[in-house]
């Protein structure tokens, strides 16, 4: 059986990679593939005058990046629930300490 320290270390590492992925995919949607880049409207109508609008990054559309962002967000919630469960005893005693003096 894995030690508690190893489990916390792995959970911390996975959480860090997960949050980095969330920030990465979030920035792609916000700054590289903003809303409107998926449709053909802007391109057919001569663009917006703001330069080239990219429809894809590394052969994935805004929608596909959004799906990854969403799955990472769901995973983040699960990771945080596990994190709280692993530290539940600590949380209990910490909160109790406020009422004990
Ligand atoms: C710097 C960090 C982040 C940026 C720039 C960012 C950016 C975005 C953008 C632009 C959208 C809208 C996507 C769309 O219009 O389709 C979005 C949606 C969303 N983001 Fe983020 N995000 C970031 C971090 C996070 C984090 C940390 C979480 C969760 C813990 C999160 C959870 C979500 C969820 C649940 C949605 C809705 C997804 C959906 O509608 O399918 N984001 N984010």
List the helices and strands and how they pair.
Elements: H1 4-32, H2 41-44, E1 56-57, E2 60-61, H3 62-86, H4 88-99
Antiparallel strand pairs: 1-2
Helix pairs in contact: 1-3
The site of protoporphyrin IX containing FE has 12 residues, from helix 1 and helix 3.
Regarding quaternary structure, what we see is: single chain
Low-confidence stretches: 40-47
Computed CA radius of gyration, to the nearest angstrom = 21 Å
Percent of sequence in beta strands: under 5%
Cα shape: elongated
Structural class: mainly alpha
How far the N terminus sits from the C terminus, by CA atoms, comes to 39 Å
Distinct compounds present: protoporphyrin IX containing FE
- DSSP strand tally: 2
**What series of H and E elements makes up the topology?**
HHEEHH
Compute the number of structural domains.
1
Kindly state the percentage of residues in helix. Answer: 55-70%
Description:
The chain has 101 residues and is mainly alpha-helical. It has one domain (4-99). It has helices at residues 4-32, 41-44, 62-86, 88-99; strands at residues 56-57, 60-61. It has a two-stranded antiparallel sheet. Helix 1 packs antiparallel against helix 3 (62-86). Bound molecules: protoporphyrin IX containing FE. Residues 22-23, 26-27, 29-30, 35, 66, 69-70, 73, 76 line the site of protoporphyrin IX containing FE (HEM).
Q: Which key features would you list for this structure?
A:
mainly alpha, 101 residues, two-stranded antiparallel ribbon, 4% strand, binds protoporphyrin IX containing FE
Task: Briefly summarize what is shown.
The protein is mainly α and 101 residues long. It has helices at residues 4-32, 41-44, 62-86, 88-99; strands spanning 56-57, 60-61.
């Amino acid at each position: 059986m894995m030690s508690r320290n190893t489990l916390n270390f792995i959970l911390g590492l996975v959480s860090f990679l997960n949050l980095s992925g969330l920030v990465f995919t979030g920035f792609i949607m916000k700054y590289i593939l903003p809303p409107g880049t998926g449709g053909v409207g802007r391109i057919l109508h001569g663009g917006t005058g703001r330069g080239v609008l990219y429809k894809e990054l590394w052969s994935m559309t805004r929608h596909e990046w959004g799906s990854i962002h969403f799955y990472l967000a769901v995973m983040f919630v699960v990771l945080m629930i596990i994190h709280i469960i692993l530290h539940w005893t600590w949380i209990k005693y910490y909160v109790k300490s406020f009422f004990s003096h």
